[in-house]
Amino acid sequence: MRIERIAEDKRRFLPLLLIADPDEGMIGRYLDRGDLFALYDSGELKSVCVVTAESETVCELKNLATEETARNRGYATALIRHVLDVYRDRFSVMQVGTGDFPKTLRFYEQCGFVFSHRVAGFFTDHYPEPVFEEGVLLTDMVYLKQAL
């Protein structure tokens, strides 16, 4: 397994990024200003994430996506551990915003994140089309955080 920071031609990863964030316009708002990381196993792309600086002390995991056939094999967890290590000396907190979906929230909690706050109506107010996760309509953005 190897993880690379991608500096050029980040949009080539758009098909995978759209799994975690279904709006290309939203991805465009953070992709260029963020750091893109790609995890490969046996030379094949398995998972990606984008991390942005939100302030001098806070960075945010904006997008974390794993190929459907590669899920539940620890790739996303390995990618999170990697970015936590990368940003530990530069920021004091990493946050992540996600839909209010129990399975996803449990995943981030298992990775050491704790509830921070909720933005009511985020998905209905900021996305042109309804956003679903496993058939469930997302409305609120739930933020979790982890001290670095």
UniProtKB/TrEMBL annotation:
InterPro entries for this protein: Acyl_CoA_acyltransferase, GNAT_dom
GO molecular function: acyltransferase activity, transferring groups other than amino-acyl groups
Every N-acetyltransferase domain range: 1-134
Organism superkingdom: Bacteria
Pfam family name, one: Acetyltransf_1
Identification of the protein by name: N-acetyltransferase domain-containing protein
Organism the protein comes from: Oxalobacter paraformigenes
